[in-house]
Protein 1
Amino acid sequence: MFLSRYIILMMFLVSSHAFAEDKPVPILAERIQGHIHPSICRGQNGTLIVVYKGANVLVCSRSDDQGETWSKPTAIATSAKRPAVIREVKKYEVYPGTVDILPDERILVTWNYIADDKAKDGYYERALLYSLSDDQGRSWSEQRLIGPVDGKHLGAVRHNVLPWMGGRWLLPLRVGVPRLYDPETDVLEEYPLVGPGGVQHEFQQIVKTAGGSLLAMGPVLLRSTDAGQHWLPVKGFPAIPDQRDNAEGRFLTTLSDGRVLVTWGRGQKNLGLSYNLSTDDGQTWDARRTVVLLPDTPVAARYYSARTIQVDEETVGTVFMNRNGVHFLKVPLKRLSGSF
């Protein structure tokens, strides 16, 4: 009898502990709609920086206490400006891309300025732009344009910009082959990325692990151990999309100890955050290790992706959105390893 009561008590305490941990912190606590697309990075001093779309302008919110509290969002004013290469039209949109930290510790934010005059003469352009901050997101440089190529703008960078050799940036584009960009010379070149089958997929994200391997996530997951010269498919990846619309609802996070985390959701009615850890540099995955947090909470997926960053050696944090706002969930890594 005593043992049974003890087991029940321990199950209650574990359940209560899990429930207590799963309390998202609001970054924006109001009803929202449209292409909000929050993204997140961690600055060199531990500051967390979240960027998302406001009223046709990108806004930035910061946390200096590991996501416990967040500053009032401030506008990244340059993101609201129409670039000179885009003609003025009545129907336009500022479309968020991603926020990343560069090796020199500057913060990079990308976005699209979309001009839609199809009804008049078929005109539609989606210029890719960026701005930099050297003070942890407090102020931002004037916008700069990436592209166009052969008269065509590049479109969206959906997940992250990967710093590359020679000061270049690797851009995994929403449409088309990834491209390398040199911000000093404005030179763009294609980055062919094919597996054994010779197929050039679109890749939503390309990351570099702590061990130096590269992972490219598209309709398949590819891995390279020779700086991208050769790629092999990774079997058993739990977040392979069942259709193209779900391909962007996933995010890879490389951890400092060599593990790799994928966060994802599916479809327009997704509930909860799904996590799965690879413990060997992204080589192998086990779908049975998937952990779902906030299973009853709507979390936008499909064209939106919840994005996770490492907060410290023991913790990750995920920014996500739903119709009720933008939220941040801090998660101990041990919870994602199957133990409390």
Protein 2
Amino acid sequence: MGSSTRKKKEKKKDFQKPKYKVGKTKPKASNHTDTSFKSKGIVLGHQSLSTDAPDADQQFKHSLSLASSSRSDKQRREALAYLTSQLSADSSANPVGTGALLTKVIPLVSDSSTPVRSQLLKLLRTLPEEEVKFSVEKVIMYVRAGMTHLSSDISNDSLGVLEWLLDVANDELIVCPGGWVKTLSTFCAMMGWVLSSSTGGWTAGARAGLKATDAQTLGRQITALSRFLEAGFRAETAQDTQQSEYWANLHRLPRLPNAFDYLNLSGERRDEEGEMYSNREARQQVFHRRFLEPVSKGIERAKKEGGAAGRAATLLDQILQQGISDYEPSTAMDTQDLLDLW
């Protein structure tokens, strides 16, 4: 009997909840392992400790490399912010030069991140204007690609870069190779103002642009086109120069890096779109022949819509009338017509 009672009590212990007294530690399990010991050894891997920090030029180049090649949106934005702060404090703190910097960062015009594009525009506004003028042809190629991007946000931000370019180098923009005709073609394609030249097949509709455009966005696009046409149709004024300056400019070696670029001595043969139109009459002629009809029809449609687009179209109409009022189209066959016949 005693043995049976003892076995019953032992089985009963498995189902009883233990009662612990206050302040008494919980009993350790039978399989407890003591891990309270601490290691006092210090192991150092292969490390290089140096007291010399990288100088400002190396940090600038490193940030420029991150801005142009990093896969992280945050890292690109922070790198552009560092470059902006350095150039804002001292515009001469650029060890690579404005041309090399623009070559690295200007592809970010079509970046997929909105904060990166906003920071890029802030960086561009810190660059010296007299040095930006030599890189206009390179910059405008990426701006045109951004303007015709399928994303509306990228297209609108590209207009901001174009407006900055018109502020700092409008004369260089309209006379660089492709700066006049290709940019006008980009504007027309972006706003759906391109008409089909063929008699059959598909033709462009009233608003057959690359993407759907609201009235506010269309108004901004028309305003940017107005500024571009105003710069291209600006009357050329003769500057009064002294006789000594005249002979000095005539016989002195040119200081510009592309002084004879308009002659196209070593480049490929340019077509009408890639040509340089250095005088107002040439720009008026090609605009009258290729863009006057689609732009005029686009202005009339925008006026009928009213709102921001209608007000911008009214301003564009005034600039257009002033720009081509003194142009008289010639009935003679020009060089481009002869090339087309060939």
Protein 3
Amino acid sequence: MSNDRRGGQRGSKSGGSSAGNGARNGARNGDGPRGGQRGGSGGGNDGRGGGANRAGNSGRGGYRDGGRSGSNEQRGDFSDRGRGRDSDEFDEYSSQSPERERGLGGDQVEGVNAVRELLRADRRDVRELLISVGRENSPAIEEIIELAREQRVRVREVGATQMEAVARSESPQGVIALASSIEPVDIDALLEDPKAFIVVLDGVTDPGNLGAVMRTAEQAGATGFVLPKHRSARLTPSAMKAAAGAAEWLPIAQTAGVPSFLERAKRAGVWSVGLDADGDVDVNEIPVADAPIVIVLGAEGSGLSRLTRGRCDLIASIPTFGHLDSLNVSAAAAVACFAVARRRGRE
């Protein structure tokens, strides 16, 4: 089977799966020579389609997002006790709630790595940099301050109370940047890339996991990232901090729905591979890894939605060897993305 969909030899979903299965002599979970290896869980009924069951449901959950709620996503008010600052200036930010953000978000960046990459990329307007008084000096902080001055960004030192009040992640590491929001890129531009390697999240709602997957995708050489407009985490300060600057370099698009995006990808000649415990193909042996490809990771707990799973050309699984039946979605993303990266690196 040719891997080049754009050459007009596109196989059907079942054809793609069977081609992958034949090449791997029974790679389905629990079968064949792997001696009972279990596929890492990744898909299933997402509970949103009236309780419809997915085909071949093994009873396992999906790659789990964990639903952590420990991060502080509520922005408090700036105190007016800063050195040389009046209360009106801090009220400008304290009156802005998270709901003011539109689109992807990303306008408040916290943490040393995330802020440094924001300034290194120099792709967005940064209107202010807040630095904690009494911070520990480090080369990274000094670089941030120097970059800010070169870009004529206003730099302010604030006390611990003010830093804590404005922070919306658990630990901003003494540095917060206020910038313009990240603008989504055009989906067609991502799909038209002849080397397209796109990561899509289907209903992942934890900001920390979103950021971790973005960081992995960027490091694995992904050419784009796609998020649903609904039922998805956004680029909150916690997500931006976890991404460690990946959001500044990775083109991000939004879609009204993942199934419709996958149909669009198919028309553009791009293969789509979902991760699920019942996948027919070992994730390390995806036959179309070197072709234009979309990797789809499902929601926490429920995995891939029924419609999303149905639109994927191939369903891949991650072999596991322990007692647990699930991987965190960011861990699953790392395995899948670098499996694709290794294949592409050899070609």
